[in-house]
């Protein structure tokens, strides 16, 4: 189950047809991540107390699991695409505040469409 709670994933996949699972390898995003640089990238994704990770999850309605140098994502196709973009930007060194601002803009646009 790639680090997800079995009941949580089972319920999501049984209730919804449009949910998918995706995996990002941090070394595919930035090949030079080794040692402390990899640790810092993981820290940027998780944030202090998991704040950044939860922000991405809540804004995109996805679930993330950070396991070593891989990030597993469960959600709709469009939500995974947005979450992947945010995670890639964090890996490349973008500050969490910039990602937060970006997510606010995206969610505001999405709420105006409906």
Brief summary:
The chain is an alpha+beta fold and 114 residues long. Helix content is 60%, strand content 17%.
What would you say this structure looks like, in words?
- The chain is an alpha+beta fold and 114 residues long.
- It has one domain: Ribosomal Protein S8, Chain: A, domain 1, CATH 3.30.1370.10.
- It is 60% helix and 17% strand.
- The protein is built from 6 helices and 3 strands.
- A 3-stranded antiparallel beta sheet has the order 1-3-2, with helices on both faces.
- A hairpin with a 2-residue loop joins strand 2 and strand 3.
- Helix 4 packs parallel to helix 6.
- The protein is globular and about 40 Å long.
CATH level-four homologous superfamily name: K Homology domain, type 1
DSSP helix fraction: 55-70%
Beta percentage is: 15-25%
* Strand arrangement in the largest pleated sheet: 1-3-2
Shape: globular
What is the CATH architecture annotation?
2-Layer Sandwich
Number of strands: 3
The largest sheet, given as strand count, sense and whether it forms a barrel, is: 3 strands, antiparallel
* Average pLDDT taken over every residue: 86
CATH secondary-structure class? Alpha Beta
| Tally of DSSP helical segments | 6
Structural class: alpha+beta
Query: What letter string, H or E per element, gives the SSE order?
Result: HEHHHEEHH
As residue ranges, the low-confidence spans are none
CATH third-tier fold name: Ribosomal Protein S8, Chain: A, domain 1
What does the radius of gyration come to? 14 Å
- Give the N-terminus to C-terminus distance in angstroms: 33 Å
Number of folding domains? 1
């Amino acid at each position: 189950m790639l680090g997800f709670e079995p009941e949580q994933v089972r319920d999501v996949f049984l209730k919804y047809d449009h949910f998918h699972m995706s995996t990002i390898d941090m070394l595919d995003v930035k090949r030079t991540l080794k040692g402390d640089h990899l640790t810092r990238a993981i820290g940027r994704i998780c944030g202090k107390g998991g704040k950044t990770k939860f922000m991405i999850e809540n804004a995109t309605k996805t679930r993330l699991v950070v396991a070593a140098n891989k990030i597993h994502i469960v959600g709709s196709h469009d939500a995974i695409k947005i979450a992947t973009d945010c995670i890639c930007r964090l890996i490349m060194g973008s500050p969490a505040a910039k990602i937060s601002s970006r997510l606010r803009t995206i969610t505001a646009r999405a709420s105006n469409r409906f």
